[in-house]
Write a structure and sequence with these properties.
By secondary structure, the chain is an alpha+beta fold. Helices cover 16% and strands 36% of the residues. The longest helix has 14 residues. The chain is globular.
């Protein structure tokens, strides 16, 4: 379930025209799910809440859509056992 201004997508192509992209992983060995939005505050809230509800090894990062290889996150969120952490990178 997503908020009205946070959408799930299958491919990077669907994120074109949006400012932010989030990738959420259930674990280190899982494939990541892509979400996109123009609202950073709502996307951070969404990523945090999704990661909090997933496995103890879940994590999520938010990137600028222009970061072609998603290697410089602006926000990171992860679980360590039953605790959820987040950190702004900028």
């Amino acid at each position: 379930m997503t908020k009205d201004n946070v959408k799930w997508c299958k491919t990077d192509e669907e994120t074109k025209g949006y400012k932010y992209v989030a990738i959420i992983w259930e674990s280190n060995s899982s494939c990541g799910d892509l979400y996109y939005s123009n609202n950073l505050k709502d996307l951070k809230s969404f990523v945090y809440n999704e990661v909090k509800q997933l496995f103890d090894t879940a994590s999520g990062n938010i990137y600028y859509q222009s970061d072609e290889y998603y290697n410089d996150p602006i926000y990171m969120c992860w679980r360590d056992y039953s605790k959820t952490y987040s950190q702004n990178q900028r």
